[in-house]
Amino acid sequence: MYKKTPKERANVACEMKGTIKKQKMHARFLNTFKPSTPLRPFLFALSTRKPRTRNQIKRNRRTKTNPFPTIFSLPNELIAEVVARVAATSANDFFNVVLSCKVFNRIAEDNYILRHVTLEKFPVVPWGSTEQAFFLDKCKRSGHPEALYREGVIKYFSFAKVEEGLNCLNSAAKIGHLGASYVLGVILLCVEKTEEEGRRLLSYVRSESGIGESRKKLKDIISVTWLKMRLKPKPNSCPMQEQHRRRRGWPSDSDDEVDCEACGCHSEVDFVCNLLRGIITY
Ligand SMILES: [Zn+2]
């Protein structure tokens, strides 16, 4: 039998001693090892983040960027511009937009939008419709030029509330409403010391080619209201009125045929005075 030499026996003893030492170290490590944080079940054990509270989750959902932006991601000014353009095109479409959601409903209360709503389909006097009367009043308070013009004509000629009527017409004319400038110009031409301003307003309407349209608008309002107020025309101050009248012939709603300012203004005053008496002279 082979006997190990003393050197070999010493080596074996050393190896065994090393193995025992490693085993002891491993056992000591297992006994003393404790994780720094308690292990969490399943997926949470893999994550080092703290669990989020319900409020945090809601907040994160709110602030999360929507990959499909809606119209409400646009600035409010831009949304107001879009709604104003819809309102200027069709009152029915505007009311549908207003009823579609709370955001549009709130934005539609803006004066800028109310000033742009077309009143084409609205009656001049909303008999028996409180909703229409309420909406027209809201438009008037927002500074809607057409609503102010209608209110001014009705207040002045139908209710004989001179000051209120003139205020409404003046507000509409300042914004550039041609019909209001026309009516206000004619009224001022019939009043002492305001002829110059009246002539200026009618010249402005003529320069914008708005005489014919202004006559028609006034006729449409006058035809559906009763009248309390009449205008008294002043004599024509033009020294050449006979020749000018012969050249012009009958009064016309054309904007190009009048070449004398005094005769042209007098012709418009005549037209409105006759209209108020129920005579249409064109
Ligand atoms: Zn003349």
From TrEMBL:
Disordered as annotated region, ranges: 235-254
Pfam families associated with the record: TPR_27
Superkingdom, natural source: Eukaryota
Protein name as catalogued: At2g35280-like TPR domain-containing protein
Domain At2g35280-like TPR: 121-222
